[in-house]
Amino acid sequence: xxxxxxxxxxxxxxxxxxxxxxxxxxxxxxxxxxxxxxxxxxxxxxxxxxxxxxxxxxxxxxxxxxxxxxxxxxxxxxxxxxxxxxxxxxxxxxxxxxxxxx
Length: 102
Description:
Helices cover 39% and strands 16% of the residues. It is of the alpha+beta class. Strands 1-2-3-4 form a 4-stranded antiparallel sheet, with no helix packed on it.
């Protein structure tokens, strides 16, 4: 009988550094694969739902995000739920509201 460690050393390893972009192999260059990794990791990540508070929002299509728990559908960015423009606009609106209330 073979021991478990000798079997594991003969088997193929999964990616250690490249992660999700390992499917591209050595193609396209390291810098482009690094950018693609950042985008693909963010688009496949789970986000927190603003309505129910659970980490269950997943991307269904480009710019469409759906919470699996409360079934709410939200518009967002193509690769991440919150775009930088939307975040800055939200903070500006909040700041202006606070200025008018005081």
